[in-house]
Records
---
Amino acid sequence: MPVNPATPPEAETALPPADTVPSTPEAPAAETTAPEVAPAPAAPAASPEASPKAPLSPPQNLTVHDVTNTSLTLKWSTPESAVDSGLDGYCVEYCKEGASEYVAANTELITSNLFVIKNQTTGDSLNVRVVAVRAGERSEPASLPNPITIREVPDHPRIRLPHLLRSRYIKQAGDQINLVIPFSGQPKPMITWTKNGQPLDVKKVNVRNSDKDSILFIRKAERDDSGTYQMTVKIDSLEDKATIVIQIVELPGPPTSVKLVDSWGFNAALEWTPPKDNGNTDITGYTVQKADKKTGEWFTVLEHFHRLNATISDLVMGNSYSFRVFSENVVGRSETAAVTKEVAKIQKTGTVYKPPHYKEHDFSEAPKFTASLSDRAATVGYTTRLLCAVRGSPKPKIEWMKNQMIIGDDPKFRQNSNLGVCSLEIRKPSSFDGGVYTCRAKNPYGEATVACKLEVKQVVVPTEEAKK
């Protein structure tokens, strides 16, 4: 039965006896829907002994929470007058555009402030309102200013591919793969996955789709899980695609063969061929080991070696050696190695090694300054330093002089000579420290000097008249 837009005053005054008041449901379903035409929920009658209360105000802030092609979701706030005095529930009513009467959307009062009007026809426009009910009293309705059209809000499909999946995704065999790919689009798009252009093998690869993302899950990756995976998000004729290249890698096999090419003196030359199985990734290098036949212990002589041949040196005379080679890739070193069939025998020659005699070069040299002193100007009270460079063999002795007088252990001066660089530090000089400074270097083969002029200036403080 249609519900009148406003309840007549007589209906509000004439209340039924107290024993006829229906009990309020403890947990009414907020999303329960009714047929197109349904009677308005009966408002509980007030008890004759109830004390008078302030008039019930309408619900506040009525807004549209969501719209789909078959439903309309409303949201509102509790009336101001019911915050302290309590409330029995709400009645949600709607009227299709062109009709004159409102229809109740809920058969029983609801206590939630969120309600979904379901089972609507796409394209219909609805005028909606919400009425608060308390002890047989109905508030003024809270209405939306404009009718709402039942339709899906279109949103183009978009895949937000994580950054780490935009390049080749590499995992080791036996690892778990769990890729979460977010997407967006309205209405809910259709998600499809392919591998190398073919449908996925559901026995090995699981796909879980939600409203916001799609998850590609492989419990235990194997090498044949490698390939190009493509995710397609489609809404009608609109679609978006993302391509993910997955590469499952494992340890490589050993080199196909390794042989001893030659041995001479303390050296042995080896050659080997790449492995047949590279572990589904590039070979990054080789590890070469040697073993003395006397001990049988293996020692690494080359690691991360990139060529397919090598010369092993520093072998011990009189010993015999075997060699083996491992392959390497990003996962690690091959579990087995290729071993030489031949043994390298380092023969004893019976000759005594006589090192050649070389005439010792005479490095003796008289001192020579390679960088001379430069004239400088210093400020009173500010430490300054004089620098020069000298060479000579044997190492020359350095002396500093001021105005041709040798500077001794005066604490005002600090002398230093390191790797041919000579420095004289003058600590907080005064105007009396100006003059000609000389650095002299001498050894048994001669001596050399350099000099410079140091001027120490007084700090000039500007007067007030100069500032003006």
---
Amino acid sequence: MKMMNHNNMNRLELTKVLSDDEALINKKLPRELLLRVFSYLDVVSLCRCAQVSRDWHVLALDGSNWQRIDLFTFQKDIEGRVVENISRRCGGFLKQLSLRSCQSINDGALVTFAEMCNNIEDLNLDLCKNITDKTCMALSKHCPRLVWLDLESCPQITDISLKALSDGCNHLECINVSWCDNITENGVTALAKGCPKLRSFLGKGLKALTDPAIITLAQHCKGLDHVNLHGCSAIGDRSIVALAENCPKLRYLCVSNCVHLTDTTLMALSQHCIYLETLEVASCSLFTDAGFQGLARTCHMLQKIDLEDCVLITDVTLNYLAQGCPCLEKLSLSHCELITDEGIRHLGGSACSTEHLAVLELDNCPLITDASLDHLLSCHNLQRIELYDCQLITRAGIKRLRNHLPSIKVHAYFAPQTPPPSEGRSRQRYCRCCVIL
């Protein structure tokens, strides 16, 4: 009890010191230095400091301390008036704002924001489903320094937004319009012509996107290094050939579920994109070993490759990758049903596996056996392996792997054994389904 009283007194004394406007720290340190200290605090800490004293309230809410704000870290959704208050407080100081998942935000708040915070450079509006083209038109009119804009899953955004951004935000380098279903080739074409500094284009799920739009993007934005076209099912080889020929700095490319692509795409990448580090081509079911032979011959910096559901590739592809991609860290071969232990042998004995390979996904590779796991025993950096629906893998094989790599995470599934039939002629009281339930 005496100790608790002592602690309470200490808290009261500390509170008194901090709440005293004449506290020593306020006297000894100049305002500029105090502001510098406050500039390292996050939003929550600034709000707490604002409640300490009158002086600290002024210091904490000074616009210079509110240059980078991510509201998602402590509040999942906010009202528009909060954005308006922040806009008035921060003004031209604010450079980075994340309103990710703030679904209550509408155009009114963001128009006020654009007018007040015209030095904004980085704006995240992911999942702000109530905003429309009015927001982007305001950004175009008032925010010429905008560099990074995330509009993912904003369903009311249309080509009008991209046309507006191309007119007023010519310094734009990164844009995300994934799952904005109303975006078509007209919007992307306008964006490409008005924003030649684009380095990153994320357009997942834009089913209306066609080859002419991607070709225009490639021709006008030659500095592109990050492109995600996952699920853009209308595009073909012409798009990727144009990207490869015009954008030699390309480091990340995702064309998963672009089902019309052929080995022509892989050959173009092999000829022009030697700096490629990540390639995601899941469900590109027309790719063959020949295409990956060309890719592995020149793209030696590849670190992550997703080949899930590339159903035509065989052990030959793994041999090429093992020889030509010494930096490989993550490889997905799930649902590549022609892969056998021989392919994993090539992979396990390669320089990439012994030095770098950290993740290997082999879900539903029916020809893989425990021998494959034995081929991976020398992969000292292997952190995770996926083995769901690999029917020939046994617990004994996994145990041997874990004995050599004790920190590895193995994700596998073994169906429960069928119980033996009941002996004798007595009829079971319940059927098997009822027993399970």
---
Amino acid sequence: MTDNQETPDAQDTTPSGRATLPLRPPCERLSCHKSNVCSRSYFVVVMVFFHVYIINVIALLFYVHYSSGQEHATQSRDAPSSNQRLESRRPPSKPVFLRDVSLSRVEGIRVGHVQSLSLVPGKVHEMRTLSLKPLLFEIPGFLSEDECRVVMQLAQLKGLMESQLMVQEDQEELARELNLSPEEIFNLLDNNQDGQLQIHEILTHSRVRDGIWLTPENLREIYAGLNVDKDGNGLLSLEEFRLLSNDAFQRFLLQRGVERSQLVRNSRHTWLYQGKGAHQVLQDIKARVTRLTRLPPTLVDLSEPLQVVCYQEGGHYHAHHDSGPVYPETACTHTRLAANTSTPFETSCRYITVLFYLNSVDGGGETAFPVADNRTYDEVSLIQNDVDLLDTRRNCDKSNLRVKPAKGTAVFWYNYLSDGKGWVGEQDEYALHGGCMVTRGTKWVANKWINIDPDYQRQAHYQQLVSQQPEDEDDGLTLSPDMQGTDIHQDL
């Protein structure tokens, strides 16, 4: 090897004498082919573009998915699904109404408490609490003398009918329809389940079935006439009770004869319409009752018309309830159309009774509440030792509370308790009341009953059927604007 020959590994020297590596092309240093991308800057640029591309693709996928989801939701709202189309072909089921209304109840506070009322423009009425069981109030001057006169004249113009027939026939038809045996009837009447029927248990049965008010003395006379009380102890065994089955009891009454004084109710009455087109006085009274009770106007409008009753001397109405207890197998008379039931049991569902005295009675005629504010209520104890608290001809003076008729005065009470949720609850048994016998003169009264079904669904459905409103519109139970947020009852 000569001095001028270079070797591949020979080192270059700097002017300072230090050795340096020979300069080579980049590709040669990295031992790579010239066709590869070896620039770091180029690599970085490519990777940036690659990530941007990936991000754009992902964003596009999200956008497509979101857009298709929104379109599907819009189509679901606008066009019914197959299930919905199938549902629309099915016959409509019974509507379900939401409970969006609470029934206002006037507070009694305490017996003797007085509240001021604004029922008519320019006049203040005073309302006094008479009892808490039932919740009972008295409002003097509720009607003017002219209004009392107009109501009586309208009733006479229309004509009054007897409130009760003397003796109704075919009273066993209901028992046959129910297919009750004598044993089943006996067990129903035997309240204390002692195997014998006492006099008051039979009296209750006869009054409900025949509408005839018999005294214990009358019943003993019937026992003797039919020879059913074999041992004469005044009690009937099942074998003895069988002798009263069928029409034997009623045939005896027809043969014996029944006087008007023996009827549960001895009066004449008529009904006066209070809707559009009625006499202005009748419409004014209805509006005043609506403000008094603070109930939705629709409930008052769809209740019974005004009943006007006339009691002549000797007239009476033995103690009774205006409303009956409502059981699952019982339908309210006013909502039976909406109940869709064929049950033979129905009752008057009168949430509130407003009673107006149209004249002052010369003698008797008080409204008696036999067990008002009693500590307890026991139906059996109403007849004890031949003293019948239900008998308003003989024992009115034994009632806990009596209201004397005075022209223009109104009394009103609740026949049902509250259910605690703003609707109708159980029957208030303390609302038992009756009309004492008129001993002198004539007695004129009017009754305004407000009918409400304790079953909210039946009441709302009934109102929808009557008003012919679509189900998605107002069900008729909404308070009118002028009744919302106002309280006409103020303490004095």
---
Amino acid sequence: MEDPNRKIWIMQYLLLLSAACFISQLYASDDVQLYESFDDNFEGRWIVSEKQDYTGVWKHEKSEGHDDYGLNVAYNESPYTIMFGPDRCGATNKVHFILKHKNPKSGKYIEHHLKFPPSVPSDKLTHVYTAILTPDNELRILVDGEEKKKANFLAEDDFEPSLIPSKTIPDPDDKKPEDWDERAKIPDPDSTKPDDWDEEAPMEIEDDEAEKPEGWLDDEPEEVDDPEATKPEDWDDEEDGEWEAPKIDNPKCTEAPGCGEWKRPMKRNPAYKGKWQPPLIDNPSYKGIWKPQEIDNPEYFEVEKPDFEPIAAVGIEIWTMQDGIVFDNILIASDEKVAESYRESAWKPKFEAEKLKQKEEETTESDGLKGVQKVVFDNLYKVADLPFLGEHKVKVLDLLEKAEKQANLTIGILASILVIFFSIFLKLIFGGKKKPAAVVAETKKTEVAESSNKEGSSEEKEEQSEDAAAAAAPRRRTTRRDN
């Protein structure tokens, strides 16, 4: 990149390294089928693909900061002046614009990234990306002909790092003095712990004023053996051990304030103070946060406009695990009107046709969904007549009517109905028995949580549950460089 006449070269970079059936090192264990440490050169033991699609370069080198040799992927980087185009990969979603500019003082090429670039459309339609560079240092980025970003090449806040470096920089040779004190506050050296300060006092103590609630069943356990449980016929005491009936909630505790041994509740200890710390005072030796002194930046320069090197070629760089990506109609022009005419003639008809096709497909899918919905609703009405729904039947029928009339709420309402079915099913299996409330004082406190729901009551919301499904997809990234 030191060559001032450097150009952009079209480059397709893929790497493939095939392993020959060779074992470089075999340990004593018979389980080891292949081990390669790459301590020795790989040539002759590994085969590099000779296909034109896989033209990457591999080197036998030490990893940075280590003495261990390995197989290094040597990247044949293409020099460029401007990198422009969509980039979507994981959390990354932006229309890149990067200018590689040569510092006239140092001779170094620096990448200057556009700050806050526009995002990439999230659909699968054909889109056109336009970058307009004007003589007054203005950059405009258009997506489908609509301006999405405006910046200035010489503005300090539009590129990172800014094209024109700062006039001064921190002196790299300036070191913080050993006696420099950056503490604004320090513990008061003259303060002492008060005589009545008890660091051993617990944070909580028993509430002496609490009294055991009337009706508390001291001799009743919270759980008892299930009287309906029977020992399985195939149970063998010698092999399986002594059989014990499963436990259930003690029915006697249901109406009582509590069962078992009553213990006083805990309350905050008024004598608790924790570990004593001396109070903080202003540090008389405080000098502030140390910073190295500023010196003139030897790489500082001033220009009236960026030094754009001649563009001799257009390169496309892409990293993706998705097929079907097509690039078409790449244009470099000196007249914005020319670009606009190509956009109207080459891109817009294609885009409009795709939108029309997409709309037709959505209409077809919507019509098909109505047929499916009818079958689903017919069966749900039949289920609503089943006797096991009991008092929930009216609620289910009401929700079904709302789901039919309000198409935008159909999925959510159907999910609520399924939750009701599932909750009733669980109650039928497990009996829906309640655990006794823990009461620690005579005064009983009831907390009521209220919530509003346009489609259901608070009871329905308490019965709702959520299922989460995670799907792992291959990583996909597309980076496009075009002009």
